[in-house]
Amino acid sequence: MALNVNILDTYYMAGLWEGLSPVNTFFRDRYFPTAPTDIFAADKVLVEYRDGDNDMAPFMVEDADPINVKRDGYELHDYAPLNVKQSRNLTADQLKQRGFGEAILSGSTEEERAAKLVQEDLALLERRFARTEEYLCAQTMINNGFTVNEMLDANTVGKQATVKYYDPNIGNDGAYNIGTAWTTSTTWSEIVEDVRNMCRSLSRRGLPAKDLIVGQAVADVLLGNANFLKLIDKNSGLIIASPIVQELTKYDGVSLLGIVNFGGYNLNVIVVDEQYRGLDSSNPPVPEWKNYFPAKSIMVTAPGAGHLMYAHIVHMDEDGNTDTITGKRVPDLFVDRKRKTREIILESRPLAAPKNYSPWVYAAGAVS
Questions:
Q1: Structural domain boundaries, residue 212
Q2: Which of 293, 353, 294 is nearest to 140 (CA)?
Q3: Which of 43, 63, 68, 346 has the maximal Cβ count within 10 Å?
Q4: Does residue 3 lie in a domain region?
Q5: Given a cut of 80, is residue 130 above it in pLDDT?
């Protein structure tokens, strides 16, 4: 007996999305994992972070009272994540045409072709959503917050939204100023001093320093430094045995230069040359190729420094009934019977946030 399944049901499409092959994104995967508690059944998500700790416990006289450790440096904020939404049309005529890669005499029915197109459309939209989340995560690390333009439609820029995970009146602990830009003639000791200072900014606050992320222009300067090359060669055995080598092979434009000691801090030196096709700041915006991480910048941080959270999506059916759906992605459907068109909509409300105060230190203009 045939099993009748509505392939355009919201929950069925959500199941199709769950079955898609995951899209690999470096910043999101390595630094912003999502736990079950990061998916909220609410319009807002809770962002909580605290100071790191690097204090000692004191030596005390045996009969003395213990010194109490205060619970300070803790903040809790609620944010309404921005909405990410895109759609794909499916017309009656498209269901009668041979699909891309389909055999000329495949004998596919319109129902079978519709199911295949729905899955392909969801996969295409998912790749775009993943790039948006990668951009959001990278910007959160670079700026210790982010600023994005909300679009009114495909050609009109709406309002600007800004989130800062630091107090502008106090200063940004996630920013470091390179005094003199590095060149191929910069001494190794000068380079080590800058990177060590960035590491100390984290370690003094009780936060780990494991990765040194560099742009392509910085990588070129480092590879032109004889001392850096000697250290890479010396530690080649560590690189081969390190699990990070296999981990990074799945990311296009991301590779491990080496594991290098910078004045006592062993760091994975990772060069990032990931690119995406985004929009410029004009109105209407014009597409242009951009780097997720600036070519002349560096950053020190550690895996899992942040997390990616999601707020719920309110879904409305054809009868006007509303339903609150939680998840990373929520698919929906709009049917225009007059034009014989179905519009598949994918929606998400992500927010990238740190787990501690400024768990990354970013330096722009490391090279000239």
A1: 177-303+357-363
A2: 353
A3: 346
A4: no
A5: yes
